Amino acid sequence: MIIMAYNDFRFTVSFPDGSKMIIIFQGKNVPWKRIQMVKDLIDIVSSAEASNTQNETQEQTLMERFKQVIEGNFNDGSWFSSKDVLDAYRRTYNEDLKPSTVSTYLLRLYNNGMLERRGERKNRVYRLIKKVEVKRF
Length: 137
What we know:
This protein is α+β, with helices and mostly antiparallel strands. The chain is built from four helices and four strands; from the N terminus they run ββααααββ. The radius of gyration is 26 Å and the shape is elongated.
């Protein structure tokens, strides 16, 4: 009985949603050119996945990103100004906003009951309203 030795090359790519792509080469003489082609394919798929993730971040509305910045940086009950929010937004998204845009969105969040505010126009500060959940027994 003759036993032939085969080379097995297995490529597995896992995606964020849990799915997998598996490519297997089996054979006595698998050409390196084919292996390189699969590696190139994996690079293309990986860069497309990274691009899709980046696009999903860009698809968030400005209001969603604005809320995330506030909830992520000022959820400790501290008071913050529009300049504080603008600085945090710039750090988080590496994008610039006009101060008037920040003021507009802070006003909308205040009107929606997400923020409380105090002070006059020039010295106005805000803070997140903590939501308390009451359970009845």
